[in-house]
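Changelog-adjacent note: as of this version, every example in the card shows the full chain rather than a window. The one below runs 204 residues end to end.
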Amino acid sequence: MSEDTGTPESNLEEDGTALLNKALEELQAENAQLKEQAMRYAAEVENVKRRAERESNDARAFGIQRFATSLLNVADVLSRALSSVPADIADPAFKNFVAGIDMTEKELAGAFEKNGVKKIAPLKGDRFDPNLHQAVIEQPSTEVEGGCVIMVMQAGYELFGRVIRPAMVAVAAKTAAPQPAPNPTKNGYDSSGEDAGDRVDTQA
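Full-length structure tokens:
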């Protein structure tokens, strides 16, 4: 008959240790679950915040876009008026009138810039960008490469990186690929009239 060597005190201590370890494991698991839940809530709050900011910016941009679009024609009229002014103005009154138009255009351009409206005006020779430009005419050009801007017919505008009106441009036509030079030999004879098959290579 076997004897139980364990004392009541040692058995009680082992049982207590096991209970504590089990409780510790449960607390650690619960802590990990709460931590994961807190991280999900934080990510969700951040997503809601970003979405609200984006919607607010879109609403603001839409409001500005309607207002800015209504003023684009005004900017075009001022630009055309200044481009038609002669270089030499003798009349002081007319010169002051032109200066007033110039100041008005600059003030309007500054107001556009402050509200995120940026002018699209490619330079001569810039590569045509279908995202920013609209080709009104395509014509041959010896001054710029094919597919590049020849001139701007009407400036475009973008609002916070979004195009609200593309720039109207004239584009240089892309030239055809060069054709290979014709073979001087025709019907077995070269340009001198000699039979190409009877010629002997004297350099051999």
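Structural remarks: Residues 8 and 125 are 97 Å apart (CA to CA).
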